[in-house]
Amino acid sequence: MKIETRPEQPYVAVRGTVTMTTFSKIADRLPELFGLLNARGVPIAGAPFFRYLVIDMEGDIEVEAGIPITEPIEVDGDLFCSTLPAGQYATETHHGHPDGLVAVWDELLSQDLDFDVSGRVWGCRTESYFTHPMVEPDLNNWDTEVAVRLNMP
Hints:
This protein is of the alpha+beta class. 16% of the residues lie in helices and 40% in strands. The protein has helices at residues 24-27, 30-40, 101-109; strands at 2-6, 9-18, 49-55, 61-68, 79-84, 87-95, 117-118, 121-122, 125-129, 143-149.
């Protein structure tokens, strides 16, 4: 685990409420976001991510699928631009199948840290996917980073 200080990061995204079994409903929107950015010539500033806003592992999960960009843009429909907040983040990198992320999250969240969370509502909790599935289709070879913002002292 690392503690990092991060600046604000603008991103374009789509938000949805899903369950663990319907997660693909939001994940499958990432190609649409990439297509929009590519069509407009908007520079991508980092790996695609999921931002977890509200988590109930037995029920609904409010989540965003997002892509970091260099500056906000105008978008239509259910797409929007926002900013990941600046602050200190606890991070952990995972190499392997995304199914292993639950254990990574469990380990990170078991640390004695003051996480930015109120009940089931997270200030900023993300999973960034560094491996492009068209380049590396074997999920066992993927690199993913989990990050959660800490409360400011």
